[in-house]
Amino acid sequence: MLSSKDTSLKADLRKKSSIRDEIAYSDYDVQSCMVMLFVIAALLLSVISVVAATPGLL
After folding, report:
1. Which of 13, 18, 35, 50 has the fewest CB atoms within 10 Å, i.e. the most exposed one?
2. Which helix (H) or strand (E) element contains residue 48?
3. CA 1 to chain centroid
């Protein structure tokens, strides 16, 4: 029985996309993502400060 496996190496000529390309050509709005990141960071920092200020919770 003949083997049909091709063992030769083939070069991948597709363009590698970077993170900047993904952001530039995606449908995401960078400004709204930054607002959401700021809100989540503010919430996280407020929770951390409440836990740090309360001596009985740790």
Report:
1. 13
2. helix 30-53
3. 48
Contact 40, 34 (CB under 8 A): no
Look at residue 2 and give its three-state secondary structure: coil
pLDDT in tens, 1-40: 566 676 777 777 777 778 888 777 777 777 888 999 999 9
8 Å CB contact between 53 and 46: no
**What's the whole-model pTM score?**
0.52
Distance CA 26, CA 23 (A): 5
For the chain, how big is the Rg over CA atoms in Å? 25
